[in-house]
Every structure is written in C-alpha cells, then in structure tokens.
Amino acid sequence: MIAIIDYDAGNIKSVEKAFEYLGQEAVVTKDSGLIKSADKIVLPGVGAFGDAMKRLKEYRLIDTIHEVIDAGKPFLGICLGLQLLFDRSEESPGAEGLGILHGRIVRFPDNTGLKIPQIGWNSLDIRPGARLFEGIPDQSYVYFVHSYYLEAEDESVVAATTEYAAHVHAAVEKNNIFACQFHPEKSSDAGLRILNNFANL
C-alpha cells in the first residue's frame, strides 16, 4: 500500500488517481499510524514552503516522515514535496525545511525574459542508472509548475536536471529517498512510468 500524505497542500487527488490507474493501492491520509504501516510513502503538494511546514507540524507529521525514511521505506516527494525535503527556501525566510537532504530552494531570476512561474513541458537530462527513470529515454519531456527550484548541496544526489532560466536540479535520489520538482502525475507516459518505477521498487 502507498500512503499519500495529506497536509491540505493541493494536487493530492491527481496523484492518487495516477497510482490507481497503474493498479496500485493508494490511500490519502493524515493518519500517522497508517503512514508508518504503508509500504511506500508519497509527499505531494503545491503551495508555499513556510505554510506547508506549519501544516506538517500541526498535523504532527514531521516526526512520522523522519521515521519512515529512517526505516528505509521508499519515499517520493513531488513538487513542493521535493522542496520540503531540503533545508530552506527563499520563498519563506526563516522557515526550516525537513533537512533530510541538504540544499536550498531559490527563486528563478526575473531578468531572463522567461515567464515565472514556469508552467509547461521541459526536457530532462537524466543521470545514467537513476532508478526512478528506468526505461525512460534521456530528454523525455515532463510537466513543471514552479517559481522556485532546487540547488542541492551534494550534486551526487541529483538524478535529473533541466534548463529554464537556470540550471535546475529537477529530481533527486538518495538511498530510499526520491523526489521530483515536476509533476509525474501530469507528465503523460513518462510520468506514469516514473510512478510505476517507484511503486515497483
């Protein structure tokens, strides 16, 4: 069973529907016990970094997330869920992230002539051997909606990058931790393959 963490952050039902389409049992929940009993965990979401961390704290989910990751369960962050895994974000000065991986979330520069937020399809440079991207050709297109992007401290965790107003760390992998800045649930066949790869880890 895949637990999809519900912290009122939007875009959660579309992730659930994508897993169900793939024949996976997925449950949207705030219940810490159910999350801990799941085989795999997903942290999706759209919204503001600081508000999201407040809600995770209110729902007493921060310790739960640390526990399931420490237990070695496969964990997938999507969009805001990727950003929350890191230390801090320019979007919410003073707010601490989960700090499970190290790096910062920064705003796209405004002087590039490109629209901010980035909304649309972009191709990925995929690191050879990245488990989340098994069977997905390099330069496949995926769907992004974001104004802030990851600069990971340790580039060895970066599984895919893209170029849009900056060099964007678009996906990460470290041990049992996986995360995408883009929305696999909205990324057609490539995105479904990513979710299926995660479900079958």
Description:
With 201 residues, the chain is an alpha/beta fold. It has one domain: Rossmann fold (3-Layer(aba) Sandwich), CATH 3.40.50.880. It is 26% helix and 30% strand. The protein has helices spanning 12-21, 32-37, 49-58, 62-70, 80-84, 188-199, and strands at 2-5, 26-29, 40-43, 75-78, 88-89, 103-107, 118-123, 125-126, 141-146, 148-152, 158-163, 167-174, 177-180. The radius of gyration is 15 Å and the shape is globular.
What characteristics describe this protein?
201 residues, alpha/beta, Rossmann fold, eight-stranded mixed beta sheet, 13 strands, 30% strand
CATH architecture: 3-Layer(aba) Sandwich
**How is the largest sheet built, in terms of strand order?**
2-1-3-4-13-12-11-8
**DSSP strand (E) fraction?**
25-35%
Return the string of H and E elements.
EHEHEHHEHEEEEEEEEEH
Shape, principal axes of CA atoms: globular
- Low-confidence segments, given as residue ranges, are none
Q: Counting H and I runs of at least 4 residues, what is the number of helices? A: 6
Task: Please describe the biggest sheet, giving its number of strands, its sense, and whether it closes into a barrel.
Answer: 8 strands, mixed
Summarize the entry for a quick read:
The protein is α/β, with parallel strands linked by helices and 201 residues long. Helices cover 26% and strands 30% of the residues. The protein has a single domain (2-199), classed as Class I glutamine amidotransferase (GATase) domain (Rossmann fold).
